[in-house]
Amino acid sequence: MSEARYEQIAEQIRDSIRSGVRQAGQSLESEAALAAEYAVAPGTVREALRLLVSEGTLGGRRGARKTVLRTPRPAAVAEEFRSFAQWASAHGRTPGGHVIEQGWHIAGKENAAALNVDPRARVLRVLRVRLLDGEKVMVERTSYPEQLGELVEKVPGDAASVSRWLEQEHGIVFAGADHVFSATVCSQQDAALLEVSRGRPLLRHLRRSRDGAGSPLEISEDRYLANFLSVAMSNGRNVNPISWLTADEQDWF
Questions:
Q1: Residue-range domains of the chain with CATH
Q2: How far apart (Å, rounded) are the C-alpha atoms in residues 164 and 101?
Q3: What is the pLDDT of residues 30-42, one digit of tens each?
Q4: Which SMART domains does the entry mention (predicted)?
Q5: CA gap 133, 55 in Å, rounded
Q6: The model's pTM
């Protein structure tokens, strides 16, 4: 798969720091100026800056100009949890699932901001139960913007991977994702869908997937049985992709 445009821009900014064009302590241009420089939308620049902040190359408050913190390390290969099906397949497991219900809704302010659409726009909401090696492990609630939702409506209800189907059938690539993990307990609906007792511990996973230009493709709240999935991350003094959010910052981050 070809490198996403925002990743290319991030690497160009890294190169400018390595070469001394941009130095530690120096502030970058505004998002608008960078978008003009690289001939892309501001959202693409925003994703590039988010990547550089997450790795520790840049710093700065949200909405403010970013500042160079250090010279970037050489590129490293890392596994990214982009979707349930990708994770399962990468670990030699068999993903599956089936749609419980789906329908069109008005986006509303919160979902509109997360999906970058008008609050009055339609979004397709899909409720699925996901399987791992044939066993129920997760309830997935996903919302898609209208243009993509019209394609998702045609995805077979028992498709193992919606993202893979969209890539194969329409060339839509889920290039990356943002994630927030937290703990919750099984609601009455989740308990019925997963066939477990109400109140059982669940791992709550908020996910916002994006294309190569950084535009949102979907937002999803996935609730896993806690004994089937845990999250492990490695960080250090100079590379820290972990962000700690308060409860009111998680919907949507």
A1: 5-68 (1.10.10.10), 84-225 (3.40.1410.10)
A2: 20
A3: 999 999 999 999 9
A4: HTH_GNTR, UTRA
A5: 34
A6: 0.67
